[in-house]
Amino acid sequence: MTTSATKAACCVVGGGPAGLVLGLILARAGVRTTVLEKHADFLRDFRGDTVHASTLTLLDELGLGEQFAALPPRWIDKLSVQLDSGTYGVADLTRLPGRHQHIALVPQWDFLNVIADASREEAAYELIMTAEVTDLLWDGRRVTGVKYRHDGQDQQLEADLVVGCDGRSSVVAERARLRSRTFGVPMDVLWFRLPRLATDPEGIRGRISRSNLLIMIDRGDYYQIGLVIRKGSIATLRDHGIVAFRQRLRDVIPWLGDRVELLQSLDDIRLLNVQLSRLPRWYRDGVLCIGDAAHAMSPVGGVGINLAVQDAVAAGRILARSLRIGRVATASLRAVQRRRWVPTVLTQTFQRIAHRVVIVTSIAEDEAGPRTITAPAPLRLMQRFPFLQAIPGYFVSIGLLPEHAPDFARRQASLGSAARLSAQGHK
User: Beta strands 153-164 and 287-289: pairing type?
Assistant: First the structure.
């Protein structure tokens, strides 16, 4: 059964970081905003769980810094990499400008709940869970809303603007016939968890050894571990079995010891099919895509969420006035893409270089036998002149064009508790 169409000024498709941040900003501008999220909750594992300095600053501006700090997150202020020749500092966030000289690690569902709870306090806001968008509504060549399925019924929502925040497999982008440009990626990532002991290294640590590249994210009582593998090699890994995989981990990180035995089968490991792509054009009349729906990022640098949130802030600031009066010109949508185009392209360019220079080298099959991985010249230089570690720190934690909350979206809040937790959490 199809119900009668309802109406919103803006329909946001997807309740991830970009969608919820955009929904909150528009609702605080008085724009009638409906967010449609296809799942019943935000509980998805092995999603990006890093909240970077620019996003932490945004939370303060939105008056949500104290709520976020109360979760509580785990604060990380330095990033390092372990090679066969030793451990090297890569990024020093304590040298960053501003109050947040760290990255926060927190389950993404907790971060999303903070945003969603604040949004529900706005009269102009509606969040509909288990609402899966299936198609767009059209009036000639203009998008005028969406079709979605909710509680077993097909429904429609008319809107002055539809914003696709529904990820790299975006239904909005596909139905709007916005074609993506895809770049070759040499890798996939295997994600899994292992317990962390109090005596283990702290923070985010990379490990490069022979033909292995691995990242370990300190989550307090466990590590979230990502092992980089050659693109399409998962079938070979499965053929070798879990025993061979455990031995591979022992060889790369001997101090994990018997903890690797907790991986009972390869079903305990999640495959991330890495993609790197972007839409040459993010919009058409009545529809806009942002975040992963506009540009799927590699996990290199862990900056995908940060970019998506920055897209949402820029879109909210640029489009709020047009949405309030019910006339969203295509030129305004173009302005959003222009604002976010340079940081998107530069970040993806850096990731493509990293794929070629670092990742391909570290995961290449070495027919001549084991290789000893030594520090390249730039890494050695950063150890000699530690202030240089602020450069990758800035790129990862703040980004190339950080956005700030518009005045209409800001709220005053006591930041005393947040400031104390922020200052103490990484000491």
Answer: parallel
- Residues 252-292: pLDDT tens digits? 888 888 999 999 998 889 998 889 999 999 999 999 999 99
Give the pLDDT score at 361.
Answer: 61
The residue assigned the tokens 């036998």 is 369
In terms of C-beta density within 10 A (0-12 exposed, 13-18 middle, 19 or more buried), how is residue 6 classed? middle
Peptide bond into 72 cis (omega under 30): yes
Burial of 46 per CB tally in 10 Å (0-12, 13-18, 19+): middle
Residue 47: phi, psi to the nearest 5? Answer: -95, 170
From CA 317, how far away is CA 405, in angstroms rounded?
8
The pLDDT tens digits of the residues spanning 214-233 come to 888 888 888 889 998 888 88
| CA–CA–CA angle 99, 26, 338 (5° rounding) | 75
**Residue (of 294, 6, 323) closest to 145 by Cα position:** 6
| Average pLDDT of the residues in 13-29 | 97
Question: Quick one: tokens of 338?
Answer: 């222009």
State how far the Cα of 410 lies from the Cα of 404, in Å rounded to an integer. 10
d(CA 348, CA 256) in angstroms, rounded, equals: 33
Structural element, H or E, at residue 46: none
For 179, 190, 191, 234, 246, the CA distances from 230, given in Å and listed in that order, are 27, 11, 14, 8, 18
Give the Cα separation of 43 and 165 in Å (integer): 17
> Which amino acid appears at position 304 of this protein?
G
**Which helix (H) or strand (E) element contains residue 294?**
none
pTM: 0.89
Task: Please tell me the distance from the alpha carbon of residue 132 to that of residue 399, in angstroms, as a whole number.
Answer: 32
Query: At 189, phi and psi to the nearest 5?
Result: -130, 135
Residue 368's pLDDT is what? 46
